[in-house]
Design goal:
The protein is of the alpha+beta class. The protein contains eleven helices and 38 strands.
């Protein structure tokens, strides 16, 4: 099943693909789902017992229940073996039912597998996905259920009638005849969902789905497919899922504009178009350097400081405009530059301000903060004298929250002692002040870790050189913190330092430090490069979705030309669709004119 299909043979009004069946779009990354039918139901969450107000013809044909038999009822009747049964069948997993009830009460999405029964009593496995739809007042107004049906190989004993199997699904569907109503084809005259009107349906229900769910809904019928081709609808869906800051950035990316929101959502979700390419840029970067820091502002890459010859700390600023047909490094002339440094961090806040923190200067470690307004007619660095500043440090981790808050964690002090504290500086207020985030438990102290933001207000720490007793080891542990909580605390996704910690599924990245991690739209984290034990570098890409109930590492195989070496480098995400890798050590040389780009979307000339 295609994300958007223009084919006239893609189905009838109430179903695609030769009878309403299809493949649930990109249900599992990198793997095609089996060709089995799936249905759609919508319930009214504002009514008692959440009655069904719409069911697709796929649901009718597979289950054997007509729409007029299910509208106004709760979906739990599928847990009973046949219409005459009054109780849930004993083979239905009660723990799954309890989890469904809990998710609906908490307003959370549910994904799981549950035993259901057709009208004739034959068993049916239902891989179910329930998505709550919220109104403007954050009240749940509807619940959309997508059912991915497959045969249940369970001996249930004799049946009163011959069961209808999935193999007979297509022929059963084609025998159903639509009736005409208001210019549309409706099966059996029961389509309460469409009585809402296209504008209400789009704005109040479809716009609140995830990109994956909207793609699935588009395959239910021809009319929904037409509704989901609207670019404004896709923009609303992307903004709800990725946040306004990400969508604002994507609007400035030429490639994303040419692709459109629907295609961009598909490619950034499936990563099917991701590819490496080598970029050779002009302009001198003199003097040569390492241990610099870089970040992106719009479609421009900025590089500050670094370690020059004989460990000389540097304080100059360079810019690379990737929108140019022939990108070249340009020296940015600004007044009142900060003291030279290396092992620092460079971040972007408020859309157009560069922020430098910490690092190693000519007289030792630093804990100062400098900010540069790139929109100023006469750019000049300005020191921020925040109260209660963190201890001086280098090789720390940092990220920005809400585009206005700088978060700093870990690193090492002047004597080489590893640090494990976390500080926040709100740069949106007139007089910024540092605030240490008090936690009852902290991950082992470390340097060279990565700090990423996902899900809007959550941060993820990965890897680094971590303390373990009196020793230090490279780490592959993952820790998260939800900054939206009243009392934020570290949670251990994987690692052995916290009771109850378990390892995510999949093949985990080897322990490393000095790597990079960047957030993809939708909250997934991509890990790349770094110093790996026993190896000089690692260019394999690893993907993790920390929001999953059971996070699972995935290896992302990407075509093209990745960097040959991937440590001692810096990486920044440009426009949400391109990761630019600059630097990296090759023998004794540091390469700054040979860049590598990981493009997450396809190019359109």
């Amino acid at each position: 099943m295609e994300w958007d299909s223009d084919s006239e043979e893609s189905g009838d009004e109430e179903g695609f693909g030769g009878g309403g069946g299809g493949v649930l779009p990109f249900l599992v990354e990198g793997n095609a789902a089996p060709a089995a039918p799936y249905g759609l139901v919508v319930t009214d969450a504002l009514e008692a017992d959440q009655p069904i107000i719409y069911c697709s013809s796929v649901f009718e044909v597979v289950t054997g229940y007509r729409a007029d038999e299910v509208l106004g009822r709760n979906c739990r009747f599928l847990q009973c073996r046949g219409p005459s049964a009054k109780r849930r069948h004993r083979m239905v997993d009660s723990t799954v039912v309890t989890e469904i009830r809990r998710c609906l009460l908490d307003g959370k999405e549910f994904q799981g597998e549950l035993l259901n029964f057709r009208k004739d009593g034959s068993p049916l496995m239902n891989r179910l996905r329930l998505t709550p739809i919220f109104g403007d007042d954050e009240t749940i107004t509807h619940v959309i259920g997508i059912q991915f049906f497959s045969e249940a190989n369970i001996d249930m004993g004799p049946l009163p009638t011959i069961p209808r199997t999935i193999d007979r699904f297509c022929s059963s569907f084609t025998s159903a005849q639509p009736t005409r109503a208001a210019g549309r084809n409706f099966y059996r005259g029961s389509c309460g969902l469409f009585q809402l009107g296209d504008e209400v349906l789009s704005l109040m229900i479809l716009s609140r789905l995830t990109p994956r769910d909207l793609a699935a809904v588009s395959s239910v019928c021809r009319h929904l497919c037409e509704l989901t081709k609207n670019e404004d609808l896709w923009r609303m869906v992307c903004q709800n899922e990725w946040g306004s800051e990400t969508t604002r950035v994507l609007e400035t990316v030429p490639v994303a504009k040419r692709l459109g929101w629907g295609q961009s959502a598909r490619e950034l979700t499936t990563l099917e178009a991701a590819a490496w390419q080598k970029l050779t840029v002009g302009g001198p970067m003199e003097p040569s350097r390492c241990n610099f820091s870089a970040c992106a502002v719009g479609n421009k890459v900025f590089l500050f400081g670094g370690e020059g010859v004989d460990m000389q700390p540097m304080n100059d600023l360079f810019m690379l405009d990737l929108n140019s047909s022939h990108p070249e490094w340009q020296h940015v002339k600004v007044s009142m530059p900060p003291p030279g440094r290396w092992g620092h961090t460079l971040s972007c806040v408020n859309g157009s301000n560069l922020v430098v923190f910490g690092g190693c200067g000519i007289h030792g470690l630093l804990n100062d903060v400098f900010i540069l307004d790139l929109d100023s007619t006469m750019p000049a660095w300005r020191e921020i004298f925040g109260l209660a500043a963190p201890p001086p440090r280098s090789w720390h981790s940092s990220c920005t929250l809400d585009g206005t808050k700088l978060i700093v964690s870990g690193g090492c002090d002047d004597s080489g002692v590893l640090l494990g504290d976390t500080f926040l500086l709100d740069l949106s207020i007139e007089k910024p002040a540092w605030r240490e985030i008090p936690v009852a438990w902290t991950p082992p102290s470390r340097l060279g870790a990565s700090l990423s933001v996902y899900g809007g207000k959550k941060i993820l720490m990965f890897g680094g050189l971590a303390k373990s007793g009196t020793l230090r080891f490279r780490s592959s542990d993952v820790y998260t913190m939800d900054m939206s909580e009243e009392a934020p605390h570290w949670s251990c996704v994987t690692g052995n330092e916290m009771p109850g910690a378990v390892n995510p599924g999949g093949v985990a990245p080897p322990p490393r430090l000095d790597h990079v991690a960047f957030s993809l739209p939708g909250g997934r984290i991509l890990i790349f490069g770094g110093s790996v034990s026993g190896l000089q570098s690692s260019t394999q890409l690893y993907l993790l979705d920390p929001s999953e109930e059971t996070p699972t590492w995935k290896i992302l195989d990407v075509p093209g030309r990745p960097p040959r070496f991937a440590w001692g480098h810096s990486t920044c995400v440009v426009g949400g669709t391109r990761a630019i890798v600059l630097g990296g050590q090759t023998g004794e040389d540091w390469m700054l004119n040979d860049l590598h780009e990981l493009s997450l979307t396809s190019y359109i000339n």
